[in-house]
Amino acid sequence: MTEIPADPALGYFGPGSVTWKVMADPAAGPGGIAALFTQALHPRALAGVDQHSDFHTQFWPRLMRTAEYVMTVTYSPREKVDAIAARVRAAHLDVRGVDPVTGRTYSASEPDLLRWVHVTEVTGFLEAVRRAGSGLTDDEADRFLAEQVRAAELLGATDVPASRAEVADYFEAVRPELRASSTSRRGVLRLLAPPMPAKVALATPARPAWAALGVLGFALQPRWARRLHGMPGLPTTDLAAGLALRALRGGMLSLPETWQRGPVAREALAKEKDLLGGAA
Asked: What are the ER-bound oxygenase mpaB/mpaB'/Rubber oxygenase catalytic domain coordinates in residue numbering (predicted)?
């Protein structure tokens, strides 16, 4: 694992980190969508979203806030990262209740629920980037997971898997707690067909474009997760998803830099090139 940069302006990962490399890849986006589908299989984690968030009525703003948080933690100076993480921890304090599926209580601040969200998220990013043909090695994959322990700990997660082997053991251990439910199926359908203004849905290709991206995200989940959802008609095989992901990544990489990444990532990666002498 690379050390935390000495300069706080470079954040918690910095130039040369595998985190910067993975999160700059266009395939990371579909991997993040895959993670959202998988996260819905944990009843207690999903209950907090279902009962306390505006996911169903404010889908796009919530998705944008999530993406902004991830990019901030990845690339921003440590002062800014610490501030946004503190706000999220504070918001989690009021997210508690009873999960109707299991009958158990939950709190968004529980380390085990934070661990679940983190592991599904980072493995979603990592596996998508690897399957897209990035050439990321096994050693780099393990380094990415080890680096990402920092991100998990910012929100209060503990005992965070730090390698591919530890992630595999974690998923094996947590799978008895996972199940599909009417709530998870509503979440899947919302991800596949989120609300759009009529003008956007009818006058632009946004609806079919998102539908294709949503189906790809569903297909990028681990095979056991796809099957556990029990959603007839959605993909449960790997080949087509891998081909589609490679095509999407290739198309994105052919676009201008300003279309590939947001301003936070572009600024950080430009700084990386300067600091590493253009080798990044």
From this structure: 20-247
Q: Which helix (H) or strand (E) holds 128?
A: helix 111-131
* Other CB atoms within 10 Å distance of the CB of residue 162: 18
Specify the length of the chain in residues. Answer: 280
Q: Residue 107 belongs to what H/E stretch?
A: strand 105-107
Per-residue tokens: 121: 């998220």
Closest CA to 141 of 119, 156, 126, 155: 126
Cα-Cα-Cα-Cα torsion 242, 71, 14, 147, nearest 10 degrees, comes to -60
Q: According to the model, what pLDDT value does residue 174 have?
A: 98
Structural domain boundaries in the chain: 8-275
Give every CB contact of residue 139 below 8 A, 6+ residues apart in sequence. Answer: none
Q: Of 135, 133, 141, nearest to 161 (Cα)?
A: 141
CB atoms under 10 Å from CB of 223, counted, come to: 11
CA atoms lying within 13 Å on the CB side of residue 279: 6
Q: State pTM to two decimals.
A: 0.92
31 pLDDT more than 50: yes
Q: How many helices (H) and strands (E) does the chain have?
A: 15, 2
Q: Label residue 237 by pLDDT band (50, 70, 90).
A: low
Residues of the chain above pLDDT 90, percent? 74
- Measured CA to CA in angstroms, residue 92 lies from 85, 120, 157 at distances of 11, 18, 12
249-260: burial string, b at 16+ Cβ within 10 Å, e else = beebeeeeeeee
